[in-house]
Amino acid sequence: MQFYLPIAEVSVNIFLLFGLGGLVGVLSGIFGVGGGFLITPLLFFVGIPPAVAVATSANQIVASSVSGLFAHLKRKTVDLKMGSYLLAGGLVGSGFGILLFNYLKSLGQVDLLVQLCYVVFLGIIGGLMFIESLRAIRRARKAGGARRKRSQHNWVHGLPFKIRFRASGLYISVIPVLLVGAAVGVLSAVMGVGGGFIMVPAMIYILGMPTKVVVGTSLFQIIFVAGFNTLLHAITNKTVDLPLALFLLIGGVIGAQFGSSIGVKLKAETLRILLAILVLSVCGKIALDLLLEPRELYSISRVAAGGQ
């Protein structure tokens, strides 16, 4: 059954949209990710314009992150003070990201920018995850293998303007915290992602936060940054397609229930390597679409009324 999406200006099968939302929901339940870096490229593949896909996918990110945050708040695994500073940086970064997005959109280059960002970041993240997953599998197979200690201090601890974050047990400079938040804000605005796949490693390896509070704190920041980006896209670009967001959200909620039950049955090492393969597959598909000659070399765009 075809449904016309008013903002995307395309007709798409409703069951296909439910299926995409459900697929990302299953993957989110299995791997514990928000799914923004998956749903946006999948929307590209079914013909949704990248500008609309970026702006609309943030709605699903907000909904899935809210439910996850409540669970972490109950377990007291959220550093609200750290999250507030990350959020401050994220809102500033989002503002710059929207300005960049709008400027490139006016030049007609925003679609290319979004796709190139996905190729670069998914390629890097997927490659690093795949290598680390292979190492983890090898370590798991070695009986009695010595565990490598992670350094407790790095260059971050030598920077000025230090603040104590009691929930994380840290006394570090606020500068890298704001920079990490700002970087994720820019990527969220341009790529339509929550930024968790970059935020979580940065919080662990750059800021040195304990793993138990990383996910909940990341979700706290993601909710407000993704919501802010959705609002800015809706006001400045008018590219948020509410029917599309609703179909994806319903499918995602249903799919997440199945995914969570599947995820508990798989080993952590297996989950990581499967997620890495999935990320690299999406990266490869986008890169292939950029390299191959399109079926239609020319397209006709509408000119605003009143032009000569």
Task: Describe the fold and architecture.
The chain is mainly alpha-helical and 308 residues long. The protein has one domain. Helix content is 69%, strand content 5%. The protein has ten helices and four strands. The chain has a two-stranded antiparallel ribbon. A two-stranded antiparallel sheet has the order 3-4. Helix 2 packs antiparallel against helix 3, helix 3 runs antiparallel to helix 8 and helix 6 packs across helix 8. The chain is globular and about 55 Å long. InterPro entries: TM_pro_TauE-like, TSUP/Inactive_protease-like. Keywords: Cell membrane, Membrane, Transmembrane, Transmembrane helix. It is a multi-pass membrane protein. It is found in: Cell membrane; Membrane. It comes from Thalassovita mediterranea.
Which terms summarize this structure?
cell membrane, 10 helices, TM_pro_TauE-like, two-stranded antiparallel sheet, 308 residues, transmembrane helix, 4 strands, globular, disordered C terminus, mainly alpha, single chain
Gyration radius, rounded: 20 Å
Average pLDDT reading: 75
Using DSSP, what is the number of strands? Answer: 4
Gross geometry: globular
Tell me the quaternary state: single chain
Could you tell me the strand content as a percent range?
A: 5-15%
Distance between the termini: 40 Å
Q: Tell me the helix content.
A: 55-70%
- What order do the strands of the largest sheet run in, or round the barrel if closed? 1-2
H and E string: EEHHHHHEEHHHHH
* Total domain units: 1
Global structural class: mainly alpha
Largest sheet: 2 strands, antiparallel
Low-confidence spans? 145-151, 297-308
The number of helical runs is: 10
Pfam family, one: TauE
Protein name: Probable membrane transporter protein
Organism: Thalassovita mediterranea
Keywords: Cell membrane, Membrane, Transmembrane, Transmembrane helix
